[in-house]
Amino acid sequence: MTENATRDQRTLNGIGEIWRWLMHRGPKGTLKHISKKGPRELLRLVKLYLRTIRAHRVNRNFDKRYRINTWGGLRADQMDIVGGNQDCSEIYAPMPEKTFHHVMRSIDVDFQNFTFVDYGSGKGKILLMASEYPFKKIIGVEFARDLHVVAEKNVLRYENKKQCCFDIEPQLADACEFILPEGNCVLFFFAPFFGPVLHRVLENIKRSLEDNPRQVAIVYMDDDVPHSKIVEVESAVVSWGFFFSHPLRNLPFDPGALMPVQGKVWLSR
Ligand SMILES: C[S@@+](CC[C@H](N)C(=O)[O-])C[C@H]1O[C@@H](n2cnc3c(N)ncnc32)[C@H](O)[C@@H]1O
């Protein structure tokens, strides 16, 4: 592991720890607990504490603005899952808003001729944010029934003057079973799954495009830097021979992200 990756892993562990303390002890109890640590550890934990609180506030505000519920979630082993692939699932966390719009503005395609797909759509935050772009249709694939039900409610409640795609369909399904829509697609992944599930989903995409060539953009975003799957996805996608890497301008600082997000975009020729 590189020095950066070790630091990111410590940050990730620290944020997880603080999150648990906040849940069990509340903000006051957490601060009291942290204040008992030595000066260096205290400084590190206070920084992480502030970062966690800030992300919490930004994400809560997003939900309040649209009267929906996308923040907070459960691990796959606590949920009712369709199919048997929870061992390869990442935990639910919604995509930070600022980062999402930055990525969308970097994708140079005519959205009106594209269907947007979010693989592992959780409570539907990405589906709602994507509806600010003029896609033909937006589809979400989520295998956790509890999250899917919340996504359906969110889609019904969401009101945003900037919304310009109203055909939003959250589907309850394992991503491995999902059949790619006809026509051009933007396929979005925010760290949903790994291992055999990731391989199978990529293989399905490849086969669909070989059978029926069309324009596709693949976006893979990740906020788990030490265990990032970006290199793995890149080597698969590039090896197919019909995708090339699309430049993504430097991602901005996003106060809604618990961990820094990174990502890559590939376009088919
Ligand atoms: C990091 S969350 C992203 C949520 C959503 N895309 C967003 O940004 O708001 C990853 C999601 O992938 C879902 N997931 C994991 N494995 C899956 C699978 N095999 N099929 C469908 N969804 C899956 C998880 O339940 C979780 O909701």
Describe this structure in words.
The chain is α/β, with parallel strands linked by helices. The chain has two domains: 3-66, no CATH class; 77-268, Rossmann fold (3-Layer(aba) Sandwich), CATH 3.40.50.150. Helices cover 43% and strands 16% of the residues. It has seven helices and seven strands. A seven-stranded mixed beta sheet has the order 3-2-1-4-5-7-6, with helices on both faces. Strand 4, helix 6 (195-211) and strand 5 form a beta-alpha-beta unit. Helix 1 (3-35) packs across helix 2. It is globular. The two termini are 35 Å apart. Bound molecules: S-adenosylmethionine. S-adenosylmethionine binds at residues 76, 85, 89-90, 92-95, 118, 120-122, 125-126, 141-144, 147, 174-175, 190-193, 197. The site of S-adenosylmethionine (SAM) has 26 residues, from helix 4 and strand 2.
Strand fraction equals 15-25%
Largest beta sheet: what is the strand line-up? 3-2-1-4-5-7-6
From the spread of the alpha carbons, the general shape counts as: globular
Ligand kinds: S-adenosylmethionine
Determine the mean pLDDT: 90
The CATH class of the largest domain, by name, is Alpha Beta
- Going by CATH, the architecture of the largest domain would be 3-Layer(aba) Sandwich
Total domains, how many? 2
